[in-house]
Design a protein that fits this description.
alpha+beta; four-stranded mixed β-sheet; single chain; globular; 48% helix; five-stranded mixed β-sheet
Length: 495
């Protein structure tokens, strides 16, 4: 659907609701039956809350309402409405207040929870550290990090030792984000039991449990896991402040870095020391922590889910391996920046993975003014949940929705007359608040997955239970039960 069609689904207004054009109110929307006082709250609690949203979308359609302790939530899932709502951020809609409160309680804020002028100021700085030029300059280092992991895996497989893919993918993502954002090489891949990785996992588990809890008990009493989360945050903050202190000392010695920062941390430090920027030291620390925490989980989860799906779909795995052979030639992994443009099937496999296993399966927003969404009057301060994976299993949009079929995303099929499906899913959000790490994540996914498919064969681990969907804020696999087997690519890399 084009932008004009999507725009027709949203109407923002400063005038009175009576002057808005709409044909229904929230009360007219279908709703699953709830319980006295709590409404649908108990149905939403738990680490599989996103699955409940998807089930309700199938039962009640692309727009319905819920009641949670007397508050109304509106759920939307169709692509046109989701695109329109996200495009109106941050002026028309703000981040959900409950989520911001929970994140601020765990001291995870920065640009993610900021609004208005504060958001614009912080967004500009974060984007300057994650733009295409910065990522291209970091690309050789990303290749080195990936090669380090390749050698670790080849050694383990040749010695008959199992590879913990979930752990290693998270370590690789952590090395990457700390490298590009902080300018440090912590080598978490080869540091088994790295405390920073452990603390981040702990923080995400607590964040996931709190955002899906029916009642905020931690505001009245704290369990041992809550106290452990507080210790984890303190350890993360200590580590990040060490990065900041070391970078500041280096920038003092090399003043040219003030004029031309080489990474996001240097850019934020330079801004915090410029009185005209109004960028505070508190915002510096918050965004540094946010970049480390957010950059580790999403990319690792995306790759983990893709490997699980490829291991159970050998035809798709073979097609992806053939593309890796074609693009890489005799090399074991990408070494040229221009190769990033050639992984068409890999991009299709990523899109298909996000359709089936969306890492961010929903997004919480609040209306800043009375507005009309999909012909429905939405009063000011109404909470809206965009179920970003809602259409992923829609038979009308994706025939055979249970099947992992990357071919449905390949450009040649669209050129033959099929509707472009890339506008139906939002793995990185949308609008002005599109994830600032999107380009970094896609680049890392291409480098790591092409390396894996070039050098290894994938097979399901018959001794391990299947991966479960766990909502740790982002939707993560409980494990990556996939075995690696050394692969002998065809001579010259081309089949």
């Amino acid at each position: 659907m084009n932008d004009a069609a999507a725009a027709d689904t949203i109407g923002l207004a400063t005038e009175a609701p009576a002057e808005l054009r709409y044909t229904r109110r929230i009360e007219d929307l279908p709703s699953p039956k709830g319980q006295p006082f709590v409404g649908n709250a108990l149905q939403l609690s738990g680490r599989q809350m996103h699955q409940k949203f998807s089930a309700w979308v199938r039962e009640y359609g692309p727009m319905f309402r819920l009641q949670v302790f007397g508050h109304t939530l509106v759920i939307v899932s169709d692509a046109a409405t989701a695109h329109g709502v996200m495009r109106e951020r941050p002026d028309g809609f703000r981040r959900n207040g409950g989520l911001k409160t929970i994140m601020n309680e765990l001291h995870i804020g920065g640009v993610f929870t900021a609004e208005g002028a504060a958001w614009r100021k912080q967004r500009k700085l974060v984007m300057s550290g994650l733009n295409a030029e910065v990522i291209r300059n970091f690309f050789p280092k990303m290749v080195t990090l990936t090669e380090r992991m390749l050698e670790r895996w080849k050694k383990a497989v040749s010695e008959g030792r199992p590879v913990d893919l979930r752990r290693d993918l998270k370590a690789m993502a952590l090395d990457t984000i700390v490298g590009i954002a902080m300018g440090h090489d912590i080598d978490a891949v080869n540091q088994d039991g790295d405390p920073l990785q452990r603390d981040i996992d702990n923080m995400f588990q607590r964040l996931g449990q709190r955002t899906t809890a029916a009642f905020p008990y931690w505001r009245y009493f704290k369990l041992p896991v809550d106290r452990a989360a507080e210790r984890s945050f303190a350890d993360i903050e200590t580590r990040v402040r060490e990065f900041i202190r070391g970078t500041r000392e280096r920038m003092e010695r090399q003043r040219e870095q003030q004029r031309k920062p080489a990474n996001m941390l240097e850019a934020m430090i330079a801004a915090s020391e410029d009185p005209e920027s109004e960028f505070t030291d508190e915002e510096l620390v918050a965004n540094a922590i946010l970049s480390v925490i957010g950059g580790e989980d999403t990319t690792a989860n995306s790759i983990g889910w893709m490997l699980c799906l490829l291991a159970h779909n050998p035809a798709a795995a073979a097609a992806l391996a053939a593309e890796a052979d074609q693009v890489l030639g005799a090399a074991p992994l990408p070494r040229e920046w221009e190769q990033m443009k050639a992984f068409h099937y890999l991009e299709a496999a990523h899109s298909e993975t996000q359709r089936l296993k969306a890492v961010a399966p929903y997004l919480g927003l609040t209306a800043n003014a009375d507005c009309v969404v999909a012909d429905t009057l939405i009063p000011k301060n109404t909470a809206i949940i965009v179920a970003t994976s809602g259409e992923g299993y829609d038979e009308a949009q994706f025939p055979g929705p249970e099947r992992f079929r990357p071919e449905r995303w390949v450009a040649e099929l669209r050129d033959a007359g099929e509707e472009d499906p890339s506008r139906k899913l939002f793995p990185f959000g949308g609008g002005a608040r599109l994830c600032p790490g999107r380009f970094l994540a896609l680049t890392e996914i291409k480098v790591v997955v092409s390396m894996i498919m070039r050098n290894f064969e994938l097979e399901p681990d018959p001794t391990a239970p299947p991966a479960k969907e766990l909502l740790n804020f982002f939707m993560a696999p409980s494990s990556v039960p996939v075995r690696l087997k050394l692969r002998v690519p065809p001579a010259g890399g081309v089949a």
